[in-house]
Amino acid sequence: MGKTMKKLKIMVTGKNRRIASDICNHLADDRDYNVIKCAATKDALFQTVPNEMPRVIIICLGNETKETVKNYNILKECAKLGALTLIVVCNSVDKSLFIKYTTLEKIFFMSRPVSLFVLYDKLDEVESKYASGEDDYALLSEYVNPNPDGIRRKHILAVDDSAEQLMQIKEHLKEFYEVTLVGNGKNALKFLEKQKVDLILLDYMMPEMDGPDVYKLIREDEKLQDIPVVFLTGVKEKETVVKTLVELKPQGYVVKPAKKSELVAKIIDVLG
């Protein structure tokens, strides 16, 4: 018997809902792909992509602005979790705006009206690699040499269910550290299975699996138990967190939203 083909998972998003809906219908009806719809917001993208792990994301642009284009830059962090092909459907105006403000590194542009023949040809290429097990390529993975002078920068993993908080943390730390952003505890543990980090910034309150639950699992894992953990907490949770510190003995906590100086000072205090 022949080898069973894996069903390609495709996520469709974007402000142009009419085109996005049309593409979703064709992908499901013509090819029986596993199609996921996602709102074109930073939070929705950051939560959906790591949870669903699509192999292809199709963005349908429409009447974009500088800020709406920047929402898609969150996919650069998501791409670190696995292989990802990004297809952008747009007109010439939105394409120019997207190129001006995107930080994504590899994009396939498709002009409107959409040619299903061209789209399916590209998806066939991705599906062939996926079915053959060639999953270790990452078309959008970010690499900025953290070590131009031969000194390795410390790697910080920030875990928070708020995309805004995560982007603020990255903005504060990117000058000094390599920073990876993850939107929940489950995906943090998945990331730690593949990558080694020097310190974890862990949100105390998160849905499904909160900070203390993630912390306990980290401490129970021989490969991870020595990684320093600093909790991130809101002002309202501060008293509870302080009590938890006595029991769990992490390396401390930082109150959100943290100033750059406070966050960097805490990391230096822990890592030296």
Could you list some keywords that capture this structure?
single chain; alpha/beta; Rossmann fold; five-stranded parallel β-sheet; 10 strands; disordered N terminus
Q: What does this 3D model show about the protein?
A:
The protein is α/β, with parallel strands linked by helices and 272 residues long. It folds into 2 domains: 9-131, 3-Layer(aba) Sandwich (Rossmann fold), CATH 3.40.50; 155-271, Response regulator (Rossmann fold). Helix content is 43%, strand content 17%. The strands form 2 sheets. Strands 2-1-3-4-5 form a 5-stranded parallel β-sheet. A 5-stranded parallel β-sheet has the order 7-6-8-9-10, with helices on both faces. Strand 6, helix 7 (163-173) and strand 7 form a beta-alpha-beta unit. Helix 8 (185-194) runs parallel beside helix 9.
Summarize the structure.
The protein has about 270 residues and is α/β, with parallel strands linked by helices. About 45% of the residues lie in helices and about 15% in strands. It is elongated.
